[in-house]
Amino acid sequence: MVRVGIINVTGYAGAELARLLYTHPEARLTGVSGRSAAGKPLAEVFPHLACYDLTIGEEEGDIAFVFSALPPAARAAAVPPLVRAGVPVVDISADFRLRDPQEYAQWYGVEHPAPDLLPRATYGLTELNREAVRSSRLIANPGCYPEGALLALAPAVKEGIIGPEVIIDSKSGVSGAGRSLGLTYHFAEADESVSAYGLAGHRHLPEMVQELTAMWPRRVGEAPEPCLPAGTAP
After folding, report:
1. How far apart are alpha carbons 29 and 1 in whole angstroms?
2. Can you name the CATH fold of 145-230?
3. Which of 132, 144, 154, 215 is catalytic?
4. Domain ranges in the chain?
5. 227 in active site
6. Which of 71-75, 97-101, 179-183: highest mean pLDDT?
7. pTM of the full structure
8. Is the pLDDT of residue 108 over 60?
């Protein structure tokens, strides 16, 4: 049984990861951190995780495998010490997805704090990189739009039966924006609606281009604007 820790369990991604790990036959969640709720029982912050008798700390404690669920840039600063200490890390943010640190700075607005680790990171789309993921010590979890786009396009791209211009029509729920508050994500604003965002270019675009170009020698063209939908069932 592998002792697993989650950095920043208090976000949506971290909490959902904790839920999934509870039923994993070979993993045991033994340490969770989250500065905004440090010192509180995990079940107090997320009642649906009452299956865990864990207290949220500022560090994860004695663990053998780490999932990092911090926002971009903040996470890149936390990951290097773990990787250099030999602890396997899965980074859920975008910090280690792009191989070019200059492209990272262009799209995320900050310099990458650990560019020396970028060559060691494996793009963690298991269906396409299973063997590399199996042996990697630093795995970059794919973004939501790229994951759907790459899985759909990979067979046609690898066989060369696709044109050079690709249009990807993707939609994401508002939970993808995280737990921070904003008028756009209020129920009354988002219910039964679809709105476009990132019209000047989305951060996931270079990730798609990078991975598709690796499969196909010709440059993949620009993608259309992403859309943000939300709705409720009656």
Report:
1. 10
2. Dihydrodipicolinate Reductase; domain 2 (3.30.360)
3. 144
4. 2-143, 145-230
5. no
6. 97-101
7. 0.84
8. yes
